[in-house]
User: Fold these one by one.
Assistant:
Number 1:
Amino acid sequence: MSLLLECQFTELPPDNSLDTKQFLDAVSHIPSFFDCLGSKVFTLIKSDINGNITKIKGVYVKDPARYATLQQILEAEREDHAAEWPKVGATLALMWLKRGLRFVQILLKSLADGEKDENNPNLIQVNVTKAYEEALKKYHGWIVQKIFKAALIAAPYRSDFLKALSKGEEVKEEDCLANVRQFLVNYTVTVDAIYDMYTNLNAELDYTV
């Protein structure tokens, strides 16, 4: 069984509303994805994602009816914390979480699209670097960037990474990539919808850490 198919995201309704409980159930499986990347440096992203999921869940369980969708959470926190919003609570946690989710999205799509270093086709540095530069780099100061540069060099072999995604099973590469493409369908729509929500609510912040 593919690791990704264990955390399938549901198809969004026509209005692209994001059910909070369904989202939290699906996204709770994403941190284990980073174990497949091997390097301990990627545990920084894993830890960040876990922490942000916990923060969002902590808000949701206080009033599931009021926070039934992710947009309702952002709108409620904007009302409750006008002075600090959006740098507060679940709004801030989801802002950072979506960036980690975008990293996963870009990395997997790059692999599924067949992008590779022709001189080192069994390395995924090209894919991981693309994901980091497009999803996370602009939000990191130079010290954090140096840490991740070391992690990119330590990225696993392509074959080892795909085997890890298949939970250690010997699976043909084309079958594993087919699972990746299947996972990306609803996952991509979900991540894009969260980004659109932040744009529409003017909730995006560009500070670095």
Number 2:
Amino acid sequence: MSYDMDSVLVYTHPPLTDDDGIRILHSQPAQSRDGDLRGSLHQVLLADQYEDLIDQYTALSYVWGDPTPADAILFDGTKLDITANLSAALRDLRDPKRVHKLWIDAICIDQSNLPEKSKQVARMDKIYGGASNTIIYLGPLHPCVDGFMDSAKELAHLNRYENYDRYFPHSDYYDTNFKDIKNAHLAAAREVGLMYPWFRRIWVLQELVLSRSPWVQCGLKRV
């Protein structure tokens, strides 16, 4: 069922009931990327998340971009307006069958509540450190980045092995010194970095360093 968003009531965040509390978004599955974004927000204690080996959350790192609302996520008949960049991220992260538990600053923090916002921002280190994974969402997948994402995934796999040469097919290209191949990939990564504004964000270093298991995602591709 698709909603007329103009007639839907605006979502109001219930107050956090504990000093250690955060909200986690339960992003509902959908078979179609174009289907309405739906979810629910749940309060949890951050301390409990460090010890939870099963019911963990993923943190999202992305660029807000143009602050103009371009889409909305539905919470039980109410809506929360979101930016175009966040809409794209949620649609690309959404699982077709399973609920995806996410921490996203624009959704999980009541942006209209300045005292709460200040407290939550001060705890970013613990929030990103407590996430089982962090997805660094760069944006749509550009054609020139597609091949790089594939090779980056292969390179990450090969780096786990000392005898990497036996994993390469026999060809003139792969007979090249492994270090040269790696340097070529790093050079390509720098070029990719220039294409995406995420790499120019102030919070990038903190979110990346604090993350236990960072993943980079462009469109539907993740490495």
